[in-house]
Prior knowledge:
The protein is of the alpha/beta class. The chain has 3 helices and 3 strands; from the N terminus they run E-H-E-H-E-H.
Amino acid sequence: MFERAERSDRAVILHPVFPGDGPELLxxxxxxxxxxxxxxxxxxxxxxxRPDARYFxxxxxxxxxxxxxxxxxAGLILFSSPLSAIQERN
Length: 90
């Protein structure tokens, strides 16, 4: 009948770090993900002064993220900050 893609609850988290952010923000986000049944396979941090209009983080970090997703077989990418509609599409 219909084929469904296998569901993956394995995730890479991308956490932008802005001036004044403490480690508790990432800790809380990881706990929220785990409580939702997500297996965190990697966490990337991205120090930023301000969000990039196109990707939120820099292009190099996006390339690194793509590599980590492929290497870990993650089916999810979780950003610990809200994205604009344009950033989601990119």
